[in-house]
Design a protein that fits this description.
By secondary structure, the chain is an alpha/beta fold. The chain has nine helices and ten strands. A six-stranded mixed beta sheet has the order 6-7-8-3-9-10, with helices on both faces. The chain has a four-stranded antiparallel beta sheet with strand order 2-1-4-5. The structure holds adenosine-5'-diphosphate and magnesium ion.
Length: 243
C-alpha cells in the first residue's frame, strides 16, 4: 500500500525568508509520525501546507493518493487540531460538535451518532450541556480534538497537543491519541517534547530552521548517533549555528 502522506521537497518562502526548506517525508497508513522541533522551526507552517490552508512555494503534498491542491476532494479526509482552541466558548460542548458537523456537511442522523460516540471517546459524555468556557484545561483540549473528528477523517494532524498542560492532563491526552491510533487513523503530531514524541510516535523527523535534519525511529536515531537519550540526539542535531 502506498504511504498515506507523501511530502516531497516542500518549501515555503514568506517575504524572502525561507520558513520551510524543501522537506520530504512519508507517513504510512495507520502510523503515528512525529515532527519534533523547537519553537520557530517551521512545524505549524508545515501543517498549514499539509492541510491546504497555505499554498506551498514549491514541492508537493499527496494525501491518500490525491494532491492537496485538490482540497475539495480531501476536505473530509483531513482533521487538523490546531494549537489554539477552535471551538466556541459561548456554545455548549454538544452545540460545538453539532456546529462543526454541520460545517463539514455531515448528515443529521450520522452527525447525531458521531457526536454521541465522540463525547464518549473523549470522556465528555456528562459534559454535553456544559458551556465550553466552563471546561477544565484537559477537557477543552479533548473538545478541541473532538471538533476535528466530527467528519471522521482518515488523517489527523495534532499541533503541539499538550503544550501548557500539566503532566497528569498531558498523559490523558496521550491516552486519547493512543486510542485514535488503535482506530487506525494516520496521525502526525508536532511537539517540542522529546518524551511525548518517543512515547507516541513510531517514527520521527527532527526539524531545525525549516529543514528536516534527520528522521527515523527514536531507537534507530539513538543508535546512529551512539546516544542514550533522544534529548541528546536532538541537542546534537540542532546545535546552534555559530555565526
Ligand atoms: N506568515 C508569516 N510571515 C512571516 N513569518 C512567518 C509567518 N509564518 C511563520 N513565520 C515565521 O516562520 C518561522 C516558523 O514558524 P512556525 O511554522 O510557526 O514554527 P513552529 O510551529 O515550529 O514554532 C518563525 O520564525 C515564524 O516567525
Ligand atoms: Mg507551531
Amino acid at each position: 500500500m502506498p504511504p498515506a502522506v507523501i511530502v516531497s521537497e516542500l518549501a515555503k518562502v514568506i517575504n524572502e525568508k525561507i520558513i520551510v526548506d524543501r522537506i520530504s517525508f512519508t507517513v504510512e497508513e495507520g502510523e503515528v509520525f512525529g515532527l519534533l522541533g523547537a519553537n520557530g522551526s517551521g512545524k505549524t507552517t508545515t501543517f498549514n501546507m499539509l492541510s491546504g490552508l497555505l499554498a506551498p512555494s514549491s514541492g508537493s503534498v499527496m494525501i491518500l493518493g490525491k494532491n492537496i491542491k485538490e482540497l475539495a476532494k480531501l476536505k473530509m479526509e483531513i482533521g487538523f487540531v490546531t494549537q489554539e482552541d477552535s471551538f466556541y466558548e459561548t456554545l455548549t460542548v454538544r452545540e460545538n460538535l453539532e456546529f462543526f458537523a454541520s460545517q463539514f456537511g455531515v448528515p443529521g442522523r450520522v452527525a447525531g451518532e458521531r457526536v454521541k460516540s465522540l463525547l464518549s471517546q473523549m470522556k465528555l459524555s456528562d459534559k454535553g450541556g456544559v458551556l465550553a468556557s466552563k471546561l477544565s484545561g484537559g477537557m477543552k483540549k479533548r473538545l478541541n480534538i473532538a471538533c476535528s473528528l466530527v467528519h471522521d477523517p482518515k488523517v489527523l494532524y495534532l499541533d503541539e497537543p499538550t503544550v501548557g498542560l500539566d503532566p497528569v492532563v498531558r498523559r490523558e491526552i496521550w491516552a486519547v491519541i493512543e486510542e485514535l491510533h488503535r482506530t487506525k487513523k494516520t496521525i502526525i503530531i508536532t511537539s517540542h517534547y522529546m518524551e511525548e514524541i518517543e512515547h507516541l510516535c513510531g517514527r520521527v523527523a527532527i526539524m531545525f530552521a525549516g529543514r528536516i535534519v534527520d528522521s527515523g525511529t527514536p531507537a534507530d536515531l539513538k543508535k546512529k548517533y551512539k546516544l542514550k537519550q533522544m534529548e541528546d540526539v536532538f541537542a546534537y542535531l540542532v546545535k546552534p549555528v555559530v555565526q
